[in-house]
Specification:
With about 260 residues, this protein is an alpha+beta fold. Helices cover about 30% and strands about 10% of the residues. It has two domains: about 140 residues, no CATH class; about 90 residues, no CATH class. It contains ten helices and six strands. The chain has a four-stranded antiparallel sheet, with helices on both faces. It has a two-stranded antiparallel sheet with strand order 4-5. The longest helix is centred in the first third of the chain and has 19 residues. The N and C termini lie far apart (about 50 Å). Bound molecules: cobalamin (B12) and iron/sulfur cluster (2 copies).
């Protein structure tokens, strides 16, 4: 199985992947409808990284993850293809892919799979791509031998916590600016001020841009991200296939007006 995976993932441009036991994540499954898709007797989680930093300079008014084609679609294509190949080859086993809309705590899965450390900014930080990578996984009832990776943390410098504009990283009762930019309806004066001050109409990258472990992080080799890159959200842009599309045009356009 490991050799077969290595071969098909190489073809898909996936450089970082690893395995962890499903049982290590089972007790903390996130509450979402995708839970119903988990295979019966899930045994192994195959975790994959999808780096997405296209340029060294940061985009002008959106976060990096929103500057490329919606990662759900880009990663879905790769995950679906790999899953189909696995199903064909190991027809007596079940394989289900997830990304973001997943019952798995993906950061934890990635750390347990040996793909990086867990940052104080909540994110997975990989040795090559830093935290600028999405996490996807394939869950299977096939038992793959895993190494027992322990949860390892970042260097704990505290820069992210100190500079988090909303205070989310020091107190989860505060809302993350990324969540505020995605919120429908009216925003409070405090939320409006946060969008203005931090000049982001979608997402927030402050805790990533300042993280020393992201210094010199590599650019993505994934063509679909490179080819779809836009460094700014504009009022009249083509609105299709972006990470902000699912919230409808009004939310991001409201944020642009605020700015
Ligand atoms: C809901 C969600 C959000 C919400 C809430 C985030 C949150 N942290 O609560 C909002 C909208 C705010 C959000 C924002 C972002 N998100 Co988000 N989000 C998710 C989602 C769907 C679920 C996260 C979750 O609820 N986890 C469960 C809770 C319990 O985990 P937790 O909050 O980390 O809590 C744990 C820690 O506190 C930890 N802990 C305890 N003690 C300690 C001590 C230390 C030192 C540390 C580090 C941790 C720690 O224990 C808790 C339990 O395990 C995941 C996908 C997934 N299925 O995992 C993506 C995901 C985490 N998000 C992702 C991204 C990219 C982002 C943004 C960077 C997007 C942006 N640029 O705006 C920001 C970053 C915000 C931040 N720094 O946290 C990526 C992260 C990739 C990576 N490299 O890690 C994910 C994995 C999606 C994906 N498939 O790629 N997100
Ligand atoms: S994304 Fe922004 S608001 Fe959210 S935790 Fe990071 S710095 Fe704080
Ligand atoms: S800024 Fe410092 S504390 Fe925060 S994630 Fe990066 S290394 Fe860890």
């Amino acid at each position: 199985m490991k050799d077969f995976l290595a071969e098909i993932l190489k073809e898909s441009c996936i450089e970082y992947y690893g395995f962890c036991e499903f049982s290590a994540l089972e007790k903390e499954l996130l509450n979402c409808s995708a839970k119903l898709r988990l295979p019966l007797n899930s045994a192994t989680v195959i975790t994959l990284l999808f780096p997405y930093k296209v340029l060294e300079e940061k985009p002008l008014n959106i976060s990096r993850y929103a500057a490329v084609e919606d990662y759900h679609f880009v990663c879905e294509k790769i995950l679906k293809n790999v899953t189909d190949l696995l199903k064909q080859r190991y027809e007596n086993f079940q394989f289900e892919w997830f990304i973001d809309n997943s019952p798995i705590n993906e950061v934890k899965a990635a750390v347990l799979s040996g793909l990086g450390v867990r940052g104080k900014n909540n994110l997975l930080i990989n040795e090559k791509y830093g935290s600028f990578c999405f996490i996807g996984e394939i869950v299977t009832d096939y038992k793959i031998q895993t190494v027992n990776n322990l949860i390892t943390n970042c260097i704990n410098c505290g820069i992210c916590v100190k500079n988090c504009p909303s205070g989310f990283l020091s107190d989860k009762n505060n809302k993350c600016l990324s969540a505020i930019t995605q919120q429908k309806g009216e925003l409070s004066q405090k939320e409006i001020a946060l969008i203005k001050q931090n000049k982001s109409v979608w997402g927030c990258d402050i805790c990533q841009n300042l993280c020393p472990m992201n210094k010199n992080s590599s650019l993505t080799p994934i063509k679909a991200f490179i080819n779809s890159y836009r460094n700014e959200f504009k009022e009249d842009e083509d609105f299709k296939n972006r990470a902000y599309t699912w919230r409808g045009e009004n939310v991001i356009k409201r944020n642009l007006k605020i700015m």
